[in-house]
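Query structure, 128 tokens:
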């Protein structure tokens, strides 16, 4: 499993598609039933998945269980997530919670990943 991180519109998906041109790309609504026929799965916008599930009052442990199940079923998956924790701390409590929980989830994913890369201006830097 690979994890690609970087700011919005920095070329993360383009890089993944360059490396895996025949991959099946899913957005934040990545669901198990849609993945069965894919050799390589690219899961784009993980951060929006977290935001959606938190807004539906799911607990972080439930979100991690869903993510872990998908990663177990697709060990070659490429997960793409925007960096959302930099900059000014939001005043809104829910926005702060979303950023914190996304960061915690990314730490767990990175620990399991074979490769973690940060992409800036379309240039990749391997950090694991």
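Result returned for the query:
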């Amino acid at each position: 499993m690979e994890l690609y991180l970087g700011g919005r519109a920095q070329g993360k998906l383009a890089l993944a598609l360059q490396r895996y041109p025949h991959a099946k790309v899913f957005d934040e609504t990545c669901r198990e039933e849609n993945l069965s026929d894919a050799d390589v799965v690219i899961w784009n916008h993980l951060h929006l998945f977290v935001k959606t599930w938190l807004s539906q009052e799911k607990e972080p442990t439930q979100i991690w269980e869903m993510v872990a199940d998908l990663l177990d079923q697709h060990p070659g998956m490429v997960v793409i997530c925007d960096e959302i924790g930099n900059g000014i701390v939001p005043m809104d409590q829910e926005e702060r919670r979303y950023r914190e929980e996304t960061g915690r989830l990314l730490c767990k994913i990175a620990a399991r990943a074979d490769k973690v890369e940060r992409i800036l201006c379309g240039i990749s830097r391997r950090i694991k």
